[in-house]
Amino acid sequence: MLIVPQYIPIMAKITRKAVPRKTAVPKKKAKPAAAKPRAAAKKSLKATKLWTPSEIHEAFSRFRKANPEPKGELEHLNPFTLLVAVVLSAQATDAGVNKATRELFEVADTPQKMLDLGEERLRDYIRTIGLYRTKAKNVIALSAKLLSEFGGEVPRTRAEIESLPGAGRKTANVVLNMAFGEHTMAVDTHVFRVGNRTGLAPGKTPLEVELGLEKAIPSEFMQHAHHWLILHGRYTCLARRPRCEVCLINDLCRWPEKTV
């Protein structure tokens, strides 16, 4: 019988040298963060002088000369379809709303026709618009309220328009201005940006900017003022890269970062 010798492994004892601990180094105090460009711009904007009445008149004279009869870009047939279009335009582009409403308004251009169409079929027309389910519900509800409380007509006061489902202050201002010729100032993201950036009517809220613009702009320009400012913000005073080189009012603008 073959005997196989057994090997018993011997575990080597490993000794580790003690590593001296590093002396704690006191942390350096963090340097105060540099002011952000936007914050600096806001501070410098507050420090600039306000527009003079003659400068404001000059600015809107230039807008009027360049575009005597500005038009809103939301397509509509009457005060009701304008109201519906503005309600649908919340968090959506005018172009996107127009694409959906061209066919819709062919079949439903009155509150009664909109009710007859119904919420489900209305959704089919506007499903390409953001929040279309909620908006369809609001349009049907406001149509019903127009019929039950206003004789099927769009009311002519801000408070009454704001009482309609889906309609806020901006909606009321647009309808009052475009449908009934009232001197109102509808403040959307474009008008809010232009009012603050140029220093024409700085404000922390749309309402502050609205009231500031209404106070500053001469009555002779108020009929078209909100259209001029919207178009200026949409095509010239852009959010990310303002086109200062082609701006009609670049010499009057108070923005400290303008490129001309």
Automatic annotation (TrEMBL):
Enzyme class: lyase
One of the Pfam families matching this protein, by short name: EndIII_4Fe-2S
UniProt-listed GO biological process terms: base-excision repair, AP site formation
Known role: DNA repair enzyme that has both DNA N-glycosylase activity and AP-lyase activity. The DNA N-glycosylase activity releases various damaged pyrimidines from DNA by cleaving the N-glycosidic bond, leaving an AP (apurinic/apyrimidinic) site. The AP-lyase activity cleaves the phosphodiester bond 3' to the AP site by a beta-elimination, leaving a 3'-terminal unsaturated sugar and a product with a terminal 5'-phosphate.
NCBIfam families the record matches: nth
Recorded family membership: Belongs to the Nth/MutY family.
Protein's name according to its UniProt entry: Endonuclease III
Gene that this sequence comes from: nth
